[in-house]
Amino acid sequence: TTTGTAQIGVTGLAVMGRNLARNFARHGYTVAVHNRTAARMRSLVADHGDEGTFVPTETMADFVAALERPRKVVVMVQAGAATDAVIDELVPLLEAGDIVVDAGNAHFPDTRRREAALREKGLHFVGTGVSGGEEGALNGPSIMPGGTRESYESLGPILEAISAKVDGVPCCTWVGPDGAGHFVKMVHNGIEYADMQLIAEAYDLLKAGLGASAAEIGEVFAAWNSGDLESFLIEITADVLQHVDAATGKAFVDVVADAAEQKGTGRWTVQNALDLGVPITGIAEATFARALSGSAPQRAAARGVLPADVQAWNVPDPGAFIEDVRKALFASKVVAYSQGFDQIAAASAEFGWAIDRGAMARIWRGGCIIRAKFLDRITQAYERDAQLPLLLADPYFTAAVADGVAAWRRVVAAAAVHGVPTPAFSSSLAYYDGVRAERLPANLVQAQRDFFGAHTYRRTDRDGSFHTDWSGDR
Ligand code: ATR
């Protein structure tokens, strides 16, 4: 089989693939480019050929032949059937030791299946999370590659070169075997859902409590961006809230319909958490909040019909209220991340991935949507204790939440009294109180289970499993 001079190849040159190819070329790599419809490949080379060295190829055979060995092929097509079709076309052209990188948004069980199939043929299959959207793909995304550790030896340096950097450190590391990379990307997206919902609830509270305009709330978020909350999402929230709609001259957010959509990674995260039995209540509530917002018939039936029974909300001290909401937002955010990292730990144990959670926080510091200063604190927590059972129990986070817990309670209580829906704030506080409880009412649940189903129970005073004869109790 012929070999060429390209160090990497990209097939699938829609927006993401095109930008990844340009990013490789801009970093000095010779990039073979291919697209099913060759016109897309030609336009990439015509528009951006001056950015580096591209090897244009019109057929899959030419594309593969243009690559030096071990070949590194980045597949950037739609998840699902398109990815399988491209892999099926590629595999017969490759040789043992070659590396196929799926940089699309595959669901991790598909990645596990594909990795096992390619491993049988002596090929490396690297399911890779790429976060940061179009802009990230071009200028430096956060990259989460799975697959064999061996594949990372030759692939890793190239991916690290094109990734975002924070303090000179690449936002890319080997995550773990087979589907670990796509799994971590999925949880990243779930955390993103929670982060966005928490920010939206804070906005709603400031609007309801203060009667503040979008622009005024935008100023609050801009101020928050210089503290613990400093992050890409808080920063863009400040900008979005201050944006004026060109057509109407109104605040932009006031003309946007209040129905959120989703592509499905939040749903996957929640489904997997149910499978693993990990309570990721923040992510789940965020996912359901989007579903509720889009439940038009239910909302139409309830609006103006279900009684609210609330009084007007006149916050006496706006400055103190804003500070309470800030603290409640930060504490709820810590809970959402703590839960997401629990899910990573559980999956890592289930699938034998040995994922370094501190390293995940490190590669999310730049390039991706949840990039934030606060992620350094998470990395440090896992450096202090790699086996940390609960992020909230790390001394830094315990102290950070302790500082805000009274404010958090005031905010959630006020939201309930005044009828402002705060599913993520409220469920995060309930999780906090649940996980720290001396004794939960699960004793009663277990007793009920023994009563009707002889499911047995354990005792507080003796080891072993017990069943009570309940026949005399009814
Ligand atoms: P976008 O929505 O950003 O345009 P996309 O639809 O997610 O991108 O991805 C489309 C990419 O997947 C294109 O490169 C597309 O090839 P064409 O330009 O020829 O349409 C590629 N693609 C989709 N299905 C494919 C298949 N079965 N085989 C090969 N490539 C495929």
Automatic annotation (TrEMBL):
Its EC number is 1.1.1.44. Substrate binds at N105, S131, G132, G133, H188, N189, Y193, K263, R290, R449, H455. It comes from the Bacteria. GO terms for biological process: D-gluconate metabolic process; pentose-phosphate shunt. The keyword Zinc-finger does not apply. Keywords: Gluconate utilization, NADP, Oxidoreductase, Pentose shunt. Pfam families: 6PGD, NAD_binding_2. It catalyses: 6-phospho-D-gluconate + NADP(+) = D-ribulose 5-phosphate + CO2 + NADPH. Catalyzes the oxidative decarboxylation of 6-phosphogluconate to ribulose 5-phosphate and CO(2), with concomitant reduction of NADP to NADPH. Homodimer. This is 6-phosphogluconate dehydrogenase, decarboxylating. The lineage of its organism: Bacteria, Bacillati, Actinomycetota, Actinomycetes, Micrococcales.
